[in-house]
Amino acid sequence: MAPLTLVIGNKNYSSWSLRAWLLMKHVGVAFDEIVIALDTASTYDEIDRYGPSGRVPVLRHGELCVWDSLAICEYVAELTGKGWPQAREARAVARSVCAEMHSGFANLRTLWPMNARARNRRTAIVPALGADIERIDEIWNDCRRRFGAGGGPWLFGDYTVADAMYAPVVLRFLTYLEQERGNSVRSRNIRLSAIRSFFRLVALRDPESLGVVTRVLAIPMKREDRKLIAYLTRTEMQALLAAPDPSKWSGRRDYALLLTLYNSGARVSEVTALKRAQVCFGAHTFVQLFGKGRKERTVPLWPNTAQVLKAWFEELRDDAGPMAFPNARGKALSREGVDYLLKHAVQRAIPACPSLATKNITPHVMRHNPAYLLMLSVSSRVSL
Fold first, then answer.
1. Which of 31, 63, 83 is the last residue of a domain?
2. On the chain, which terminus has fewer CB atoms closer than 10 Å, C or N?
3. Catalytic-residue membership of 267
4. Distance CA 232, CA 355 (A)
5. In the annotation, is 82 catalytic?
6. How would you list the strands of the sheet with 296-300, edge to edge?
7. What is the CATH number of the domain that holds 270?
8. What predicted TM-score, i.e. pTM, was given to this entire model?
9. How much is the average pLDDT of 266-274?
């Protein structure tokens, strides 16, 4: 067979080039690839050397020239015998949804131009765009329900031209819906990790899909901006610790809890589950914490923290239950309860320390303070 040559634009921007390229890669046909730079003064002349339409993609097979993504996909399917479902009904529907993608969804393409590497784009979902998204979702669900159930992971079970035609839409969704749905890059990467885990299982259960699995596992994690780690200065922390009312039972509890968080760097789950027996008083007082992954660690407590906790535990007495920081009913505080009392303390402390109003203070922020204090200690010694 004469060699095949696929002439395309940059796959990051040319969704029609990407469609033909994906199908040819997936069916395993050998071909040469020529990439033409788009939107330059010589682009049209370069394309004109290979095809008559002035657009990419173009497939050259010896003297034969085939242009347009859908026509190229049809020709490749004829050459290889792969690309369309075997069942007549499924094949008819697959051709229909491909034709709809080829001729429709103009609003989607106009408002969400192809750029697989784009980040943080914000586009209002106007009714026309929303209608295109709903229609695509309807197509995907219908194809999977009618023809994909019980088969492979694709729209019609096995990989078809339809999957290649709709693949760039997935990239558009990842680019634009990340902001519309409020998903951070980290959330997106977590979802990608789950997809990778699934395809590792696919590799074990369906070795014939190893090629697909390899490509899925090769999808890189998206880079994210690393935010500055939040922490509280000593002045801010002192104002926060001075906020609880010592004349009230809840105020004394809140002070002891906040001081323990500040001293130990404990997770909120660790401090809500903390029992009095986990605090060992003596010449060197320490607290035993049980964290994620059943990991146990021992954290020394400052003399002031030990004194406050000892006085608080004596106030609780033995009949108050085992919890170190109980709620009004003697049960363990919830994560929401700790968040509430912390926000209440912040509001009370803002008049004395206005800089607290500029920070989003959570129990996790207080976990960073022991490291901040250690950094200050080391830097002061180095400066000496």
1. 83
2. C
3. yes
4. 10
5. no
6. 279-280, 286-290, 296-300
7. 1.10.443.10
8. 0.51
9. 91
